[in-house]
Specification:
By secondary structure, the chain is mainly alpha-helical. The protein contains 13 helices and no strands. The protein is about 75% helix and about 0% strand.
């Protein structure tokens, strides 16, 4: 009997949560509150922005944008741990949300949680598509901020999305050159050479690094047989 009453109690409790939760859920209102919060944030009124974002999440807790902007507010309030939590929630709800992913990678790194930052970068790379040039721009931003491990992972992602483009390998070689990592520079330049041995200056650069490479003879395109011209005129 006690088990039966306990079961009825849980059903009633869950029903209460469902009813009250359903009444407060309003995704459109959550978006409106989020937009208002961004206005306050941009104006430097962080506390007001946080209040609006909390209200937005009361309307729709699964809104990743509200979690992201709340994370931004916590950063402004010098509370990186809570910022990390909000970024992680945003990424869980929307793994492809680039702003939250990049913010999470950056804050984890600055908090000394390097391994976690690198792991978050790997997750980011799995979900990152688009032009290699755009991806390399993100990698450069990380490199400029001393986040070399993350930068290399993103440069390599640029190589993956455009495997027939030698430029990502050349840019990665430039990165290694700036770091004085000659062997890795040679490796990246060799990868670029394998993709396009005719890329201007590539053979000369490998030569200055002591690498002897042979540019293959260009393949001549044979003209079609005469009969094809005759048939095309019919």
């Amino acid at each position: 009997m006690k088990s039966y009453h306990r079961g009825i109690g849980w059903v009633g409790f869950l029903a209460f949560i469902c009813v009250t939760g359903c009444k407060s859920t309003n995704p459109l209102e959550a978006v409106r509150l989020n937009r208002q919060a961004q206005v306050y944030y941009q104006a430097g009124h962080i506390d007001q922005a946080m209040d609006l974002l909390q209200e937005s999440l009361n309307r729709d807790y699964e809104n990743p944008a509200s979690h992201y902007w709340l994370g931004q507010c916590y950063e402004q309030k010098n509370n990186p741990e809570k910022a990390i939590f909000e970024y992680e929630v945003a990424v869980r709800f929307t793994p492809s949300m680039e702003l939250a992913q990049l913010a999470l990678i950056r804050v984890l790194h600055h908090q000394g949680r390097i391994d976690e930052s690198i792991q978050a970068t790997k997750v980011f790379c799995k979900n990152k598509y688009g032009l290699a040039s755009n991806i390399m721009g993100l990698a450069k931003d990380f490199a400029d901020n001393g986040m070399d491990h993350q930068a290399v992972l993103i440069y390599k992602r640029a190589q993956e999305v455009e495997p027939d483009n030698p430029i990502p390998s050349i840019i990665l070689a430039d990165f290694y050159h700036a770091k004085g990592q000659k062997n890795l520079e040679i490796s990246s330049l060799t990868e670029a050479f394998m993709i396009d041995p005719y890329y201007p200056g590539l053979t000369r650069r490998l030569g200055t690094l002591g690498q002897r490479v042979k540019v293959p003879e260009p393949k001549l395109i044979k003209p079609p047989p005469r009969i094809q011209y005759d048939l095309s005129d019919m």
